[in-house]
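Run: sequence + flavin mononucleotide -> complex structure.
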Amino acid sequence: MDKKILVVYYSRTGTTKKIAQEIAEFLSCDIEEIIDQKNRSGIKGFMSGGKDAMKRELTEIKPIEKDPANYDIIIIGTPVWAANMAPAVRTYIMQNREKFKNVAFFCTTGGTGVEKTFIEMDVAAKKQPIATFSATTSEVKKNTYQRFKEFIEKIKSFEI
Ligand SMILES: Cc1cc2nc3c(=O)[nH]c(=O)nc-3n(C[C@H](O)[C@H](O)[C@H](O)COP(=O)(O)O)c2cc1C
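>> structure
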């Protein structure tokens, strides 16, 4: 039986979105963008975003279209904000975690906070990820990120 996989992600400036789309393409699976209803644009949005992420605040997100209960694996992606996940991703996880069967995580980062972010996601989801992947913003821009294939292979070969 084929596994049902969903990629869900939040992206403020398109970096995490690029990886999310690539994952969905490699796995031929569904994809859903998480939309933060709070304005995160500009310097004001940057500041509030960092502060909210650090304080583990939740936000309001647009209602989701794809029910995570219908999937065997949910692959959750976030930019690293203040060494944490973005508030929109935390909100998605908190609202849906009881429906997760298996999870995998990915993030994009300026360069720091990856391990801490994955631990935060794992605690919030109450589940250990079956695979993780991270890339820096500049790696994504240059298409030079490593270990992507391994991440995809781990998910492909995961037995449900
Ligand atoms: C509010 C905010 C906080 C951030 N905090 C960090 C951080 O703690 N460490 C880091 O390396 N990069 C940090 N960044 C950079 C982003 O993680 C990075 O640029 C990411 O690739 C952006 O993804 P996106 O284009 O999908 O929004 C931060 C960016 C924002 C907007």
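>> summary
Helices lie at 15-27, 42-54, 87-96, 114-125, 137-142, 148-157. The mean pLDDT is 97.
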